[in-house]
Amino acid sequence: MQKQLIECVPNFSEGNDMAIIRQITDEIESVEGVQLLDIDPGKATNRTVVTFVGTPDEVVEAAFRAVKKASELIDMRKHKGAHPRFGATDVCPMVPVSNITMEEAVQYARKLAGRIGEELGIPVYCYENAAYDEKRRNLAYCRSGEYEGLPDKLGRKDWKPDFGPAAFNARSGAVAVGARDFLVAYNVNLNTTSTRRANAIAFDVREKGRVKRKDNPLTGEIVKDEQGNPVMIPGSLKAVKGIGWFIDEFGVAQVSLNLTNISITPVHIAYDEVFRKADARGVRVTGSEIVGLIPLKAMLDAGRYFLKKQQRSVGVSEKELIKIAVKSMGLDDLYPFKPGEKIIEYVLAAKDKKKLVDFTLTDFVDETSSESPAPGGGSVSACMGAMGVALATMVANLSSHKRGWDERWEEFSGWAEKGRALQEELMFLIDEDTNAFNAIINAFSMPKKSAGEKADRKQAIENATKYAIEIPYRIMETAWKSLEVIKAMVDKGNPNSVTDAGVGALAVRSCVIGAFLNVRINAQGIEDREFVESLLNKARNIEEKTIRAEKEILEIVNSKIS
Known about the structure:
Strand content: 5-15%
CATH superfamily of the largest domain: Formiminotetrahydrofolate cyclodeaminase monomer, up-and-down helical bundle
Low-confidence stretches: none
CATH class of the largest domain: Mainly Alpha
Radius of gyration: 28 Å
Largest sheet: 7 strands, mixed
Number of helices: 17
Helix content: 40-55%
Number of strands: 13
Structural class: alpha+beta
Distance between the termini: 43 Å
Number of domains: 3
């Protein structure tokens, strides 16, 4: 399973004393599995926005430690600042980034809220997607009256906190803990210096739109509703805020957008819509920029979107998808777009231990041939499987671009995309097989002096060994699925590449048989024989089906090349 990532963006009511902020961020960095991404202090607001990301449980722990430290260092009785606030840690949202749903993020947010309320005695209000009460979805509603209004609010039934005591904590105030969608700050560059024109385009696209006026849309009288509020003409994009401005540094005007929910309006849709609205006003879009970080998925989705517009296969590498996205949206217009510094998952990966899949081919082979027992047969089997399905994906991509087959590009793009997904899973399993082996070594290294330690060690060895046969079984299962793609390419793909798909079948067969050897040898040390027999039967069935399928595929290949 791919690693789940959550971003956390706590706002602390201190923006002048960086010694205090450093102590808080030190608590965050003390948790393994979490990476601090940004510290943004504001003197006028007397507030600091901190951004960090990591695996869910570790993010909850880091956030709790930060809130605890803030409650010790920040005294709200002395706080003054331009920004609305009601607590030492004012807000603390959880943001799903990768391989995690909003529903799961909500559960982690509420887990954090419970700990803050119970262990620190601070009133907590859950907002946005984590809210228990529909009214409390709105942060401004939760924070109404600010810190000074808390004594009165906490005495009322309708303002009972979701967690923690319904009592005024004079030092720490209250905290709002929520779960929200990832916000992308995105600016679109224009070939004009006119802020007014940039503003007009921003009003065209932002959800709020513009004020409705009588007769003349620029100077006419503002139309108001029965309550006396201005009537708005909505813009064309949902979940988007925007304004136009001029940037001295680059000498151009921009449409500056906040994409508050990129699952509703992703960056590529925002770019295309601004392009259309600008063109209608005689203005050209020259490029765009991402301010801060962006999730990998958003960039990959953009790459696929622009490839589909060209009627080209989307079953290509991450690197190629990112390149297409960057060029299509002009993300390198003002300065180079560096994926390692702008994409969240890549920023994190740079800090991780180097994976086998990141080795050069020479380094991987040398590492395998060294005296270390890992990587071993399981990792090499997964590698063979990945190479096998990669050949089928290549044939699909070649077929989608074959002269005379233009109307079939989408058919072959679908096969390439399916092959690419299986290839990525097998590449993940190259490292995971080694990780599973290391988990067994670690379990055997556990202490065994007391009866309790012996029992814990025995159970850890059993669990680790089970996982060490589940991984090669997953390799078998994934590789077997790839034979569907390989057979389709032998049957329907570019006939000039039929032997490439045939070699893919040979590689997948070897992968499956090799992974089964690993399943069998690791199964010997497991006491849960019911678990073992069930898995062995399923694995044996996959091996038999793979051998038959490979034979059928090679018969087709040989018939075509003879």
